[in-house]
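Late entry, evening session. Most of the bench is empty. Finally got around to the prediction I had been postponing all week. Sequence below, unchanged from the version circulated by S.P.
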Amino acid sequence: MKLHRTPSAPHSPRLCEVGTAPTTERFQVVIYLAKTSPAFPELEMRSCEEYALTHNWDVTLTVVDDETEKPLEQRPLLLAALQTIKDKGAEAILIPSKTAVSPIDGEFDEFASQVEKAGGFVQVARRWSTRYGIIPADDGASYPVWVIRDRDTSRLVKALPPGPEPLRFYSYDRAERWVRANEQPHPAPEVT
């Protein structure tokens, strides 16, 4: 069982005091790793760290849990990751795969629902196999807002082209659904 609080990077912006130039706080995540064998989950940790770095997210806590055989409610390190979300110390829990939480879909979905009720979300660190990425909108809202970045152009997807406003989602789940729907290849036209 290992719990490691990651120090803030010296270059990461923080909220400033009144009267100084405005900056925004970077998106904070907890990395949660399940240790299912005696070996340290090095590849899984690197995958999550690369994903966070690619999204310009700060890792506030890294959890390596070796009590994965227990039910979810009896895993103190998994609950510590959830508590970090509840305490507003992070906005998301980053995992290498759904099985890091539970190999049972219903249990994973239950945990993800608890994280969402606490104001966060669970993100599986995936390699770039899709064109679109979901990122937090940097608009100062007191609630989570998500926008879609086109990885081919590095620009935000617009709501109504040619308008300047980006497409916004107030639920990460809805943003994922948009990405899945728009990633699917269009059927080839029938030749007659």
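Two things to note before I forget:
The longest strand covers residues 58-65.
The first helix runs from residue 42 to 54.
Will write this up properly tomorrow.
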